[in-house]
Design a protein that fits this description.
Structural class: mainly alpha
Order of helices and strands: HHH
Number of strands: 0
Helix content: 55-70%
Number of helices: 3
Radius of gyration: 17 Å
Largest sheet: none
Distance between the termini: 51 Å
Shape: flat
Strand content: under 5%
Number of domains: 1
Length: 99
């Protein structure tokens, strides 16, 4: 018989639809950034022992990021926007090297 998780250690559910749009876009940007690196074969997918390369999916993730950054741009401080654009540029350069 397994022991129940001690209080405070059980997974918490969270309704993502409760987040406002800017926070959701930020979350999606982080997820798509990680997936782009994984699809370029430059980072391991959790639970895998070898990198997997799928440049079609990497391109889709990077293109989606570009649209999201553009949508957030008018509402972001210049410093935050510059950081996102630097991440996007880094992904685009690495994609070009991989293809």
């Amino acid at each position: 018989m397994s022991k129940p998780d001690p209080p405070g250690n059980s997974p918490q559910s969270f309704d993502l639809t409760a987040l406002d749009l800017d926070h959701l876009l930020g979350l999606f940007i982080n997820i798509l950034t990680a997936k782009a690196w994984q699809y370029m074969g430059l980072r391991l997918i959790p639970g895998k022992e070898e990198a997997e390369k799928d440049l079609v999916k990497a391109a889709a993730a990077i293109d989606s990021l570009s649209v999201m950054v553009d949508k957030l741009a008018p509402r972001l401080p210049e410093e935050d926007l510059a950081g996102l654009r630097a991440i996007l540029t880094d992904l685009q350069i690495n994609y070009a090297r991989q293809s």
